[in-house]
Amino acid sequence: MFVEVVDGGGRRLAAAGDVPGAFVEDFFFGQHDDRTYHVALPFGADGALGTVLLGYDETPAREQVGLVYRRGAYLALAYVLLTLGMAVLVGLKLTRPLRCLIEAAGAIAAGAYDRRVDLRSRDEIGELGVTFNRMAAAVSDKTARIAALNDTAVKITSVRSLQEMLDEILRRGAALTGAQAACIAFYNQETGLFDKWVTQGLSDHFVKNMAFRQGGLADEAYVMAAGTYVLSNDQPETKHKLSRLMHAEGIQSFICLPLMSHAERLGVIYFYRKDRDYFLPDEIEILTTFASLAAGAIANIRLQEQTRDLAVTDKLTGLHNRRLFDERIQEEIRRATRYVKPLSLLMIDIDNFKHINDTHGHAAGDVVLQSLGRLLPRLLREVDLPARYGGEEFTVILPETDFVGARLVGERIRRAIAGERVTLPGGGEISFTASVGVACFPVCGNKAGSFIEHADQALYTAKQEGKNRVCLYREILKVQLENDPERIADLLNQSLDNIQPIVTAVSAKSVYYYDHAEKVNTISKQLAEALNLGEEDRRTLALASQLHDIGMISVPDAVLNKQGALTDDDWKFIRQHPATAAGLVEKVPGLRHLAPIILHHHARFDGKGYPEGLKGDAIPYLARVLAVADTYASMMGKWMGSEVMSPAEARSRIAAAAGGQLDPQIVAAFLQMPDR
């Protein structure tokens, strides 16, 4: 550091410190060299009086300034880095959730309605994530309901019957909103009342006590504007409060929606909740749409059924026509065959109908036919099918009904017709009668053609025997065959389908024969399996077991139904039946090979049997097999003067007969069979 004073001429007047040797220039805060700063302070104009010169060594200051600069730079760099880091962190915190939201929104837009975001922060981003998930859940729920509604539309429009459709509507409608029960009540245009309803999920007590009063809640659903509804619960602001019946059922709320099609009142549909006392707005919205869809579907299927009914309904009587009868008889035969159930058919013909037309006119005949059309359904079950077969002839299909039940139904119909009084168009009344023929499946024919034909034959017999009566085919065939046993061969030559009707007619001779042939046939099949018979022998044995007793047609009923001991003359009749049966099948080319088996099925292994006394291996093998089956079936049935044996007792008797009455080897095979 130095100070120097000079005058205007540049002469040094005073100095202090380390004064440099010379000045190079005059400047203010100018730098003289790399180490020293100089300051010149002139006195007077342009330094005329002199100048004060100051100077100092800048090295220490420069070092301090450099240090300050470096520290400032470091601080600035640290600040910049910190700012950048914070910006990155903030950016990541914002952009990652936003990207997650964007991706989830895109996935939902593409159809992934179950997509959600996992944002768990407690700030605005977290709240946005929660809101987004709620929105996604609402979209998913509504989309699922729309999909369910679409699926429902496809399903209910593809069903074939009204009842099936109603079941689908109730089930799927409840599922759309989680309702626990549903009901459809139908409106009767003629009476102005709701007179029929179907339900789902409601107790029998509730359904039994349901009522739809005129002008009530169900009617109110129509008074309001289209697309509206009536809601019922126990909330204070609700107009329609729940009844005691509702409370007893556990119902907390229900909604009633109108079913309308082209301004026509079809009915109303109810949905009941037991878990809460309200329906959400979107639930109401989708149920309103669903009700409209259901109404259209119901109207369409009603129209289809009406059209179909016209095609299969007899216009005059209102009964089913021949076309539907032909379809249903085939269906019922298939069902009876599949489930091994009886099936009966009635053929009904109005007696002296031509006389009614000739005497009172065809209009009177139409009235008689119409009265029968009204009468038959009242006398039958819902599963039965009455139909007009043609002219004055009617039919009734009776599913799961044997000949005993069919006879009772036929008699009930005959008596009801005889007691009917018909008012004629021109005044006055007349009465009329009808004859009934009955056939049973499969014993009177195992195909539709023979089944119907045999019922018609029974009807013809009823007419021939005096009219106003019921005749069973098995009984009239029995009489025909008794009068002319050779007719058996004729029927078998016509068709082997007549085997069962013939066997049934023969079995009608005695209660003891009711199911004997069927039992023998069943046991023969089991024996054939135990003996490992070939297919041809099995078929032969099956036919022989069915026909082995047809010769009994020549034995008087009094002998077959005798309760006491048989006389020698009685036994003479009975011992003729194998030869009679063999003689009949001999006349049928397709059955001729059965004759030796049938002829000798009562031969004994020890030679003491009939009709020819054959012994041991001289007896045809299948005749020996049939003998075991026939003997066991007789022991297991109620027979003349004897009681039914237990299976164990019958098997013991069979074992004791080995080597005497029966072939011991076949008996051994029989005893190895399960006790069935």
Automatic annotation (TrEMBL):
UniProt KW keywords: Membrane, Transmembrane, Transmembrane helix
Domain HD-GYP span(s) in chain numbering: 491-676
Domain of life: Bacteria
Iron-sulfur recorded as keyword: no
Coiled-coil segments: none
An example molecular function term from Gene Ontology annotations: diguanylate cyclase activity
One family name in Pfam for this protein: HD_5
Statement: the UniProt record of this protein carries the keyword Membrane: yes
Substrates-to-products reaction catalysed: 2 GTP = 3',3'-c-di-GMP + 2 diphosphate
Residue ranges occupied by any GGDEF domain in the UniProt entry: 341-475
InterPro entries linked to this entry: Diguanylate_Cyclase (IPR050469), GAF (IPR003018), GAF-like_dom_sf (IPR029016), GGDEF_dom (IPR000160), HAMP_dom (IPR003660), HD/PDEase_dom (IPR003607), HD_GYP_dom (IPR037522), Nucleotide_cyclase (IPR029787)
CDD domains: GGDEF (cd01949), HAMP (cd06225), HDc (cd00077)
Name of protein: diguanylate cyclase
Residue ranges of every copy of the HAMP domain listed in the record: 92-144
EC number: 2.7.7.65
GO cellular component labels: plasma membrane
One GO biological process term: signal transduction
Species: Candidatus Muproteobacteria bacterium RIFCSPLOWO2_01_FULL_60_18
Transmembrane residue ranges: 72-92
